[in-house]
Design a protein that fits this description.
Keywords: Acetylation. By secondary structure, the protein is mainly β. Helices cover about 10% and strands about 45% of the residues.
Amino acid sequence: MALQKQQDSSETLITPPCPDLRDSSLNPGTHSKSSQSPECKVNSKKGHLVIEGKPGVKYFLTPSFFLSRAEVAIMAASMWTRPQIKEFKEKMVQDMESVIIVGRGEVLTVRVSTHEDGSYLFWEFATDHYDIGFGLYFEWANEADGTRTVEPSVDGQMTALMSHDRDVYTINSHCEVVPVYRRDSHEEVYAGSHQYPGQGVYLLKFDNSYSLWRSKVVYYRVYYTR
């Protein structure tokens, strides 16, 4: 979907949460969490922090991870609702890319890159007949090599990409902006904005994992402003 340009919004400063390095989803070969923190060592040759968990498995944090965590603050998102849900859905249905279906028991993630001419991300969404969970996350770009080393899977979990060695994984910073909560988007249009913390990708998560019988139709749009 092409990003559109709109007006600005003001925000409140907060400190971003730090991702849990013990999360089993960082290791595609396991689904359990350890009760002990992984061992941390400094790799002087590569300039990376090495996180050692299970024998033979290491995680590397690039210097840009620490720069983004220590020197950049995440602004709180502004959120609101508006009652013109019928008009909004009628407008969105004219662009089929603005209509998505989240299957029963599924979490669908929409990835939106920051725009070089933008400073704020705006979003709006509504649903038919039933509520849906919604949350917003920000994934930092890897400034070291211009790539993002962590990609969310279809179900919204973080999965690490393998590097040259089969038992070495690279991870990057992944920050929660808006926690996932169920929203009554079948009654009102839910909207919000967030100031870019830097270069990266926003992850809009539409969570229908709690619904075992019903798929959800979501009408949405995203755009940026200066």
